[in-house]
Design brief:
- The chain has 5 helices and 4 strands; from the N terminus they run βββαααααβ.
- By secondary structure, it is mainly alpha-helical.
- Strands 1-2 form a two-stranded antiparallel sheet. Strands 3-4 form a two-stranded antiparallel ribbon.
- Helix 1 packs antiparallel against helix 5 and helix 2 packs antiparallel against helix 4.
């Protein structure tokens, strides 16, 4: 059976509309949340996060431009994690977008889609880009031992640089997650 975890936060109430008809509306009755930091600190942190997410997207796009032209990106253990980094990055942009529309109070659902999503998506992006770097190390070992015979080209070096920069941007974004902690407002 499908269950909405936010259903208990709402109460159905019958009200009269402007034409005198009875309309059922959902009224939020759950707890309200707000950022622990001041609005100015949250705004500055959201700008930093937007810049880091933009840099990560740029590094991902630039790395993808060398995707088919390098020996390192031809390996599935480097290419798959690099491509999968796009999904957490998309959800990070959605969370950053919601931060640019600040509110005084957030519902539980809004809290999950802003503050909690930042921590989850930056961790996943950092994890996948880290797995990409481990794959690059494995590919380097295979090249050094002679198992992989393709020579290292300048495109390989550029792909490695963009992979390291992507990991750095996602790690710095993960460090910013503490700026977006929310707490329940006591009524």
């Amino acid at each position: 059976m499908i269950h909405n975890k936010y259903a208990n936060d709402y109460k159905l109430e019958n009200v009269l509309d402007s034409k005198g008809r009875t309309v059922t509306k959902a009224i939020y009755q759950g707890p309200d949340f707000c950022f622990v930091k001041t609005p100015e600190e949250v705004r500055k942190a959201s700008l930093r996060l937007a810049v880091l997410a933009g840099c990560a997207a740029l590094f991902l796009a630039a790395g993808l431009s060398f995707y088919a032209n390098t020996g390192f990106s031809a390996q599935y253990y480097t290419s798959t994690p690099f491509l999968v980094c796009a999904f957490p990055l998309i959800f990070l942009f959605l969370a950053v977008y919601s931060l640019f529309r600040p509110r005084e109070k957030y519902t539980r659902e809004q809290k999950d889609k802003t503050g909690d999503r930042i921590a989850k998506t930056t961790f996943l992006g950092m994890l996948f880009s880290g797995v990409n770097l481990v794959g690059i190390i494995v590919a380097s070992i295979l090249k050094a031992t002679g198992v992989e015979t393709r020579p290292v080209t300048m495109n390989d070096v550029i792909f490695i640089v963009f992979s390291v920069l992507l990991f750095a941007a996602m790690t710095l974004s993960f460090g910013l997650r503490k700026e977006f902690v929310m707490e329940e407002i006591k009524n």
